[in-house]
Amino acid sequence: MQRVNILGVGVSAINLAGSLDQLQDWVTQRQGNYVCVTGVHGIMESRRDRKLREIHNRAGMVTPDGMPLVWLSRLRGFKAVGRVYGPDLMLAACERSMTGGWRHFFYGGGPGIADRLVQRLQSRFPGLRVAGIATPPFRALTREEDDEAIELINGARPDLVWVGISTPRQEYWIAEHVDRLSPAILIGCGAAFDFNSGAKRQAPAWIQRSGLEWGFRLMSEPRRLWKRYLLNNPLFVGLVVLETFGMLPSER
Fold first, then answer.
1. Count of beta carbons in the 10 Å neighbourhood of residue 160
2. What is the pLDDT of residues 89-103, one digit of tens each?
3. Domains in the chain, ordered, with CATH?
4. Going by C-beta distance under 8 Å and a sequence separation of 6 or more, which residues neighbour residue 10?
5. What is the pTM of this model?
6. Measured distance CA(145)–CA(139) in Å, rounded
7. Could you give the CA distance from residue 163 to residue 184 in angstroms, rounded to a whole number?
8. Euclidean distance between CA atoms 63 and 186, whole angstroms
């Protein structure tokens, strides 16, 4: 799979259909792997954190979750790249799994969110095979708690483990656990738990396509997200301009 170097992160030159095909190949081959669903926020966090950047670059797939990454990929010659948005990837994988019989495990979300998510998914996709759910506390787990979580997931024998515990915590978790949960495929999908459960409202499709989803989310949660968008976004644009003109050292 070809990648586009965006500020040191190799973003997969892929679209939603291609992402599903890759997941299907891994499931069929019983090959453990992990996926980072990454937008501007993930790129900027990786710019500041070398270990996080390495986690992204070791991933089996880094999907372009935001339109800026799609536009940059296309400008650099990868015309078929499309947005692979976490909530859309989850829904599409659930639909694909109806014929393949994939087993899904949902790890993350706030209290009650995973339960609501599963209820909505099973209503939309009758017969969806849910191997299990778990909602970890919003803190570092003790070794005993972590071992219990691994035992629970492995006992459920999932094909896909959806991990929604926010960036960068989820990326650290999937990289640390992929070998202990193999042959499952771990997918860091962030806000997909909140959006697909109905806990938070998604931006209309036209706003998503325009690349202005950040503004919608900022208005929805200004106190939580203002630093992410008002500081990260302008810096991202500036760094990309420098990178484009060869004025920024490579970080990969």
1. 23
2. 999 999 999 998 999
3. 3-197 (3.40.50)
4. 3, 4, 56, 57, 62, 252
5. 0.94
6. 11
7. 12
8. 13
